[in-house]
Specification:
three-stranded antiparallel beta sheet; 6 helices; alpha/beta; 2 domains; Rossmann fold; binds 5-O-phosphono-beta-D-ribofuranosylamine
């Protein structure tokens, strides 16, 4: 089986958001606390009203709004986003509640160097409203997944996962809050692991070396 060995990456992060930005905040906090040896070079949002932009500004981080509605098609948006990240010499792209699909140009520019956090135990419940999907399905456990982004939605190799129970009286909202606590712990840890390059993949399986 083909094995891919990690290499130390530039710790210049580009974080892409669309909304609240609590995962962005968790990354900022981990860096400030010395738990994550990295620097956020730019935060990009597709939405000017994303609350996460203010979190970035408060932390003195450069922000940029790249609104997909200013682009005539997906290709043009993919090109604009990729150019911006390349201009800032980003080593690792972190999607943190970014609601747009990553295009082929960006995937080629950042091979195995785009991470996403998703609020379910993938491959269960990919796509939208995974907490509602978990409640509706009736699973007893769900959780959070940090994975490498590939061309298939929410289906790249898993870096880290955390499990949370689904309680009988859970609503999608209460389950989301419980999962979010784990996302905030997991995402900075996964970024640190990927940055230090001491890992390998065999097929889809990610191993710590
Ligand atoms: C998180 O639950 C994340 O897993 C999902 O979108 C949500 C974003 O939340 N992809 P926030 O903007 O980081 O607070």
């Amino acid at each position: 089986m083909k094995s891919v060995t990690g290499a130390e990456m530039s710790a210049r992060l580009g974080v892409l958001i669309s909304g609240r930005g609590s995962n962005l905040q968790a990354i900022i906090d981990a860096i400030q606390a010395g738990r994550l040896d990295a620097e956020i070079s730019i935060v990009i949002s597709n939405c000017a009203s994303a609350a996460g932009l203010e979190r970035a500004r408060s932390a003195g981080i450069l922000t940029k709004v790249l609104d997909h509605r200013d682009h005539k098609n997906k290709e043009s948006y993919d090109h604009a986003l990729t150019s911006e990240l390349l201009e800032y010499d980003i080593g690792l792209v972190c999607l943190a509640g970014f609601m747009k699909i990553v295009g082929p140009k960006m995937l080629r520019a950042f091979p195995n160097a785009i991470l996403n956090v998703h609020p379910s135990l993938l491959p269960s419940f990919p796509g939208l409203e995974p907490q509602r999907q978990a409640c509706d399905y009736g699973v007893k456990f769900s959780g959070a997944t940090v994975h490498v982004v590939t061309e298939d939605l929410d289906a790249g190799p898993v870096v880290l996962q955390a499990v949370v129970p689904v309680l009988d009286d859970d609503t999608p909202e209460t389950l989301a809050s419980r999962i979010l606590v784990e996302e905030h712990r997991l995402y900075p840890e996964a970024i640190a692991r990927v940055l230090d390059g001491r890992f390998r993949w065999e097929g889809r399986r990610y191993f710590r070396d």
